[in-house]
Amino acid sequence: MESVIVAIDGPSGTGKSSTSKAVAAELGLSYLDTGAQYRAITWWMISNGVDVDDPLAIASAAAKPVIESGTDPSAPTITVDGLDASGPIRTQAVTARVSAVSAVPEVRARITELQRSIAAAAEKGIVVEGRDIGTTVLPDADLKIFLTASPEARAARRSGELKGKEATDLATTRDALIKRDQADSSRKTSPLAKAGDAVEVDTTDLTLAQVIECVVTLVEEKRAAK
């Protein structure tokens, strides 16, 4: 099989992570959740007393944490300074701050460099999911996919992912998602955007299995054409 680099972008709640992991596993590719890396550096900032409301403070600390991502789609990992960060990065405290931290150019430069090195090292190919993969991180990716869904569908999915004290009502989740979209789409550095040559897939009325099947077909067609 030809090695293939697949970029999957889109806002939260469109099914990026579930789809990307499943597609990578089915096709024998590596997998990278770039959002987890931005969450990881945000968690490190908060844990180490960096003022996450101060872009200059964030910028000066951006190079300090050691972030490592495991790319096995069946068991992806994320560590910061050797510590498992998979749980802590999903808290509301991180979710509330990750857009602001991610908007700092020094943070994006640091994480983008890390993402490119991981993609380059994937011998059999890789599925990379995020918000600026097809436009900024891997503009020469073999296949670019942009997942979308209605705010209502995204809110329902995201609420289903939250548990216990983190759970919120649909309206609150929907409002938070729209606010995050605005922040990610309007930032000056690498905003959330659909690449001009990306294939858009609206997941609103599709099951996860249908989305996975659609993306797998697109990847196989791209491989066959190489």
List the helices and strands and how they pair.
Blueprint: E1 4-9, H1 16-27, E2 30-33, H2 34-47, H3 55-61, E3 67-70, E4 77-80, E5 83-84, H4 92-102, H5 105-121, E6 125-130, H6 133-137, E7 143-148, H7 151-161, H8 170-186, E8 199-202, H9 208-225
Parallel strand pairs: 1-6, 1-7, 2-6, 7-8
Antiparallel strand pairs: 3-4, 4-5
Helix pairs in contact: 1-9, 2-4, 2-5, 7-8
List keywords for this structure.
single chain, 226 residues, alpha/beta, Rossmann fold, five-stranded parallel sheet, three-stranded antiparallel sheet, 8 strands
Strand adjacency order, main sheet:
2-6-1-7-8
Helix residue percentage: 40-55%
Could you say what the CATH architecture is? 3-Layer(aba) Sandwich
Rough shape?
Answer: globular
CATH H-level homologous superfamily name: P-loop containing nucleotide triphosphate hydrolases
The CATH topology is given as Rossmann fold
Number of helices: 9
Structure overview:
The chain is α/β, with parallel strands linked by helices. It has a single domain, classed as Rossmann fold (3-Layer(aba) Sandwich), CATH 3.40.50. Helix content is 50%, strand content 16%. It contains nine helices and eight strands. It has helices spanning 16-27, 34-47, 55-61, 92-102, 105-121, 133-137, 151-161, 170-186, 208-225; strands at residues 4-9, 30-33, 67-70, 77-80, 83-84, 125-130, 143-148, 199-202. The chain has a five-stranded parallel sheet with strand order 2-6-1-7-8, sandwiched between helices. Helix 1 (16-27) crosses helix 9 and helix 2 (34-47) crosses helix 5. Residues 163-167 have low confidence and may be disordered.
